[in-house]
Amino acid sequence: MARRTSTPVAPEVSIQVQRRVPARGIPSAESLRAFARAALQPGAGGELTLRITDAEESRALNRDFRGKDKPTNVLSFGYDVPDMLGDLVICADVVAQEAAEQGKVPRAHWAHMVVHGCLHLQGFDHECEPDAAHMEATETAILAALGFRNPY
Fold first, then answer.
1. Cα–Cα distance measured from residue 60 to residue 66, given in angstroms and rounded to the nearest whole number
2. pLDDT at 1 over 70
3. What's the pLDDT score for residue 44?
4. Could you give the CA distance from residue 37 to residue 13 in angstroms, rounded to a whole number?
5. Euclidean distance between CA atoms 136 and 55, whole angstroms
6. How confident is the model over 103-142, as pLDDT tens digits?
7. Could you tell me if 89 and 58 are in contact, meaning their C-beta atoms sit under 8 angstroms apart?
8. Would you say the C-alpha torsion 52, 66, 115, 41 has a positive or negative sign?
9. What are phi and psi of 20, to 5 degrees?
């Protein structure tokens, strides 16, 4: 009898774009999915929702869930529910502004924000220096594999 091997299932990545957000400058849904899948460790199955929003919604979520009354680039909401990896909320306005201010290619900055958020959903953090260094090195390696330069 043939031996069955199991292949890790890629997570389902749903993309939502808030109606008020213009599509200009946002990578395609397939690109966003590829960025997310590159950042997810083997076996990190389940569903991931990536929501692209404007500054107003980002600010409200950041205020309500983190106590910070300003929009932010990416928010990660993990769930302790089977088959649910979590939600990422990325603010198109902030990502565009940061890319311009930092002289970054917008597509590269989008990739970084998706990778950064996915790592948070998998338990990475940057609250202390050793954790930040580990997370940054992991981000840099994933982004390099995707063809992007070191974002730091």
1. 10
2. no
3. 72
4. 8
5. 25
6. 999 999 999 999 999 999 999 999 999 999 999 999 999 9
7. yes
8. negative
9. -75, -10
Do the beta carbons of residue 11 and residue 48 sit within 8 Å? yes
Q: What letters, b where the CB count within 10 A reaches 16 and e where it falls short, cover 16-37?
A: ebeeebeeeebbeeeebbbbbe
Q: What angle do CA 67, 33, 144 make, to 5 degrees?
A: 90
Question: Which residue in this structure is represented by tokens 């929009």?
Answer: 71
Domains of the chain, each with CATH number or no CATH:
12-145 (3.40.390.30)
| CA–CA dist 150, 5 (Å, integer) | 36
Contacts of 67 (CB under 8 A, 6+ apart): none
Name the residue type at position 135: M
With bands split at pLDDT 50, 70 and 90, how would you rate the model's confidence at 5? very low
Alpha helices by DSSP H, listed for the chain, are 29-39, 55-66, 92-102, 106-121, 129-145
Q: Per residue in 40-53, is it b (16+ CB within 10 Å) or e — as a string?
A: beeebebebbbbbb
